[in-house]
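Hi Y.,

Following your request, here is the sequence exactly as I used it, all 414 residues.
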Amino acid sequence: MKSIYKRVIFLPVLAFVLAGCSSDEPFSVATETDEPHILDPTFPDKVNGQLPVVANITRDANFKMSLTVTPSQSTEVDWFIDGEKVATGTTIDIPLLAGSYQMKVTATTTAGKSTYREGIVNVSTLEGDPWATTVSFERIIAPGTNANLYGDNLQKVKSMRIGNTEVPSVTYNTENGFLSYSVPASLENGTKRVILIDAEGMEYGANTVTVSSSPLVTSGADRMTSGTRCKLTGINLDQISKLTLGSQELEIVERSGSEITVECPALEDGEYKLTGASIQGTVQFFVAGAVKDEAAVIVTSEQTVWTGHHYVSWDLPDENPNKTFNLISSDVFASMKPGSIMTIHYSVEPSAEYHQLRTVTCWWNDLPGTSVIEFQENGSKEVVMSADVLAAIAEQGGFLCVGHGYYVDLVTLR
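Below is the corresponding structure, written out as tokens. Let me know if you'd prefer a different format.
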């Protein structure tokens, strides 16, 4: 009986002892020589190599998070935003401007053992805030040049900073709704945050730009005409020392920071690899929304009727030369053979709300067999130059491309 009584007494005592071993500090009995662990919260895994989103907040709410780590007594926690240390300790509570940020938190023991977690923090705007979207390659900029930003409520912006550097000149383009600015010549290469500032001095985030002093071809490297001169546009193109198409080096006829004209050799129709070299190394190309070290160029033997970069918008007043494209003379059409095919190569204006192209006579009548086309990407439109089409052009004053939101870059005939 006494033995049973002792066992009954022992059980609550044992429970009390075990309870006394628990602590709000997890694994507090672990030592600095143990591996550190972040126990809570659980961070999602990467998806296709991309960092997971760990927070979605509005710009009027702070980014807040608390960690549970072990060994708790000998682990230091550091928080980083875009690679910059912004807080220490197991909690963070900081304001962020609108944009997407890369967050990283590290847990390091006094013995130097470390672990980390990372993810993306998305901070959204409030209604009425100035905000810049990403349309195409406009966020890759060169020091000392001019650049544009597209977005919403940009008319409120009176000044800007890129990183910690003030932008010398900011102008809102009322007609096309984008923000033009002068890129400071003193900017160093790298990724910099853009800060938009209104008349009252309120600051708004606009994500980042990539500052580059290397040559980047942004357009013109998708198609060339055999045996003709072709124009490429981009940034820092005056630094290009060599361009090679297939196995042949291209003759550089003219060059500036934003344009370079080359002589395309007489090649058979087909696809060729375009690469380049510069005083700083390679030449890069903006292809299908990504920056690459080479471009695939379609070379054709089509006759070049016109080449350039002419904007078209029927929203412009009649006296504006960019209301239509009317740069091919009637004599050119008079010499065309019925049944030949004219191809109009176009590129989109990123700031335009929509993109439409029509081929008409100077009386604004659609050419026989054609109609308006709508598009969102660079492309081409073929027009069969039938006897009816050529007759309409001759009888109604000539040929026009009309529509909105695009550039005519090249017109060829085959």
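The CA atoms of residues 222 and 297 lie 5 Å apart.

Thanks again,
Q.
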